[in-house]
Structure formats: structure tokens, C-alpha cells
Write a structure and sequence with these properties.
The chain has 141 residues and is mainly α. Helices cover 72% and strands 7% of the residues. It folds into 2 domains: 5-25 and 70-138; 27-67. Helix 4 runs antiparallel to helix 6 (115-132).
Length: 141
Amino acid sequence: MPISVNDVMHLLCRVSEEQKMKAAFKHSGRGALVAGATAFVGGLVGGPPGIAVGGAVGGLLGAWMTTGQFKPVPQIILELPPVEQQRLYDEAYAIIENLDWVDLVQLTALVMGNATVQKQLLGVLMNYLTNELRAEIQYGN
């Protein structure tokens, strides 16, 4: 039975909520950009000593920016662009397509009552978050 991308995203949200999954992204590129920009501005303002001061301040600011801030996985899933949701849908649908269900409520009940299917869907999520989004995953509170 066909199911919409949105419905599968909500199913994945429900599975990740059950595990209390959170993910943090490492923004190393942004941190390096900040460090370089502050060193440049320091050089413009203060010459060679300004480069040193700007680089030190920028390095500290960049390091602070790269520390991951954990967000709930359901929030991340719902914020994905449509193209990425479609990719995630395709992988998840391959797991649920052979289940016998009538509507989303029944499908959710089937998935939540079947540990094997839950683990397979969690595997899809883990693979996507770690390989595609380069996120660090955390479980529980």
C-alpha cells in the first residue's frame, strides 16, 4: 500500500522518539571560517600583533562553535529538505513495504510492536544521520 513521504517521516519520528535519540552536528568548517576571518580583521586593524590576537580569539570562538549542540532527531527529520526526506523515505519504505497494514495508525502500531522492524528503521536513521549528515548520536535524556 502506498504511503506518503510525510507519513513515513512521522513514523521515523515516532521510532526515534521511542529511543529518545538526539543528534549533534560538527560545524568544523564554520569554526575554521570564523577563526580565519577574525585573524584577517585583526590583521587589518592591528597589523601583525592584530593577526595574533584575532587568530587567538577566532580560534577560541571557532572551537566553541564546533562543539555539537544536540537536537531531537524528530526535529531534524522534519526540518530536512524534501529531497533528503525522499532519500530517507526510499530507504525506510524498502523495510515497511512488505508489512500488511491499512493506514498509518495500523502501520505505526505494527512497527512499534515489532522490535526487528524498529531496529531496521533505526539502522536506516543511524546510517543517514552519521554518514550523510555527519552527526553524532546520543540516546536517552
